[in-house]
Amino acid sequence: MNAPELRAEDVTVRFAGLTALDEVSFTVAPGSAHALIGPNGAGKSTCFNVLSGLYRPATGSVRLGETELTRLAPHRIAALGVARTFQNIVTTEGTVADNLMLGRHVLTRAGFTASALHLPRARREQREHLARVREIAELTGLAAHFDTPVALLSYGDRKRVELARALCLEPRVLLLDEPVAGMNAAERARTAGVIRDVRAELGLSVVLVEHDMGLVMRLADEVTVLDFGRAIAHGSPDDVRRDPEVLRAYLGT
Ligand code: ADP
Ligand code: MG
């Protein structure tokens, strides 16, 4: 198991007059799959933006194991092993291989000048990255399209390129913001299988924002429910599904 615990404690985020997160706490156990669910506008993406360092919370903290992430820049948090995908970003440029190699940038040691001059060390490093990136394409069901321009792929494959690119960072914690949104049933099932496989194979933790309750039930060990910026329930998928406050939040009764 290579994933440390990820812990958010009393995280509050405010935007001019709006409290997007109100003292939200949750813990992602090492190697677990943790789903963050809740109605639109509940604060799920804001939460990811805090975990990945794009937003600084007004109060509260985020820790990865013993390391305080709260005031670190996004690239530092990425280098510590927290990778993410974005809800509405799907790449349209380059081949699958190009996009995955981009995901290796944070890990490149040889530096830009050495790479540009094609020095032996940089060439060797490049070969190693390429070999690993092929393995990740294999794991994510993209191997057959390795040299294909992403613009020619189906929507489901293109969205899975985002997941694969995040994996290229060799994360210990993977944050997936609506990884199957917009996919058809077959693509959803395939992507769910990939998420399950990479977690088992790589021993990482997954934090998943998802509307598809079937997928949450199948993938998540634990669920945190957000509603109007507050964490209103924690528990197993079965527990939260029966929670009266959760039903109220979803059904508005
Ligand atoms: P979710 O992902 O659960 O649908 P978000 O985290 O995107 O919800 O948004 C939570 C609330 O915060 C919403 O009311 C949204 O309009 C608001 N919000 C999110 N990001 C910003 C921002 N950068 N500036 C102002 N308001 C924002
Ligand atoms: Mg969102």
TrEMBL record:
<dbReference type="Pfam" id="PF12399">
    <property type="entry name" value="BCA_ABC_TP_C"/>
</dbReference>
<feature type="domain" description="ABC transporter">
    <location>
        <begin position="6"/>
        <end position="253"/>
    </location>
</feature>
<dbReference type="InterPro" id="IPR027417">
    <property type="entry name" value="P-loop_NTPase"/>
</dbReference>
<dbReference type="InterPro" id="IPR003439">
    <property type="entry name" value="ABC_transporter-like_ATP-bd"/>
</dbReference>
<dbReference type="InterPro" id="IPR032823">
    <property type="entry name" value="BCA_ABC_TP_C"/>
</dbReference>
<keyword id="KW-0813">Transport</keyword>
<dbReference type="InterPro" id="IPR003593">
    <property type="entry name" value="AAA+_ATPase"/>
</dbReference>
<dbReference type="Pfam" id="PF00005">
    <property type="entry name" value="ABC_tran"/>
</dbReference>
<keyword id="KW-0067">ATP-binding</keyword>
<dbReference type="GO" id="GO:0005524">
    <property type="term" value="F:ATP binding"/>
</dbReference>
<dbReference type="InterPro" id="IPR051120">
    <property type="entry name" value="ABC_AA/LPS_Transport"/>
</dbReference>
<dbReference type="InterPro" id="IPR017871">
    <property type="entry name" value="ABC_transporter-like_CS"/>
</dbReference>
<keyword id="KW-0547">Nucleotide-binding</keyword>
<protein>
    <submittedName>
        <fullName>ABC transporter ATP-binding protein</fullName>
    </submittedName>
</protein>
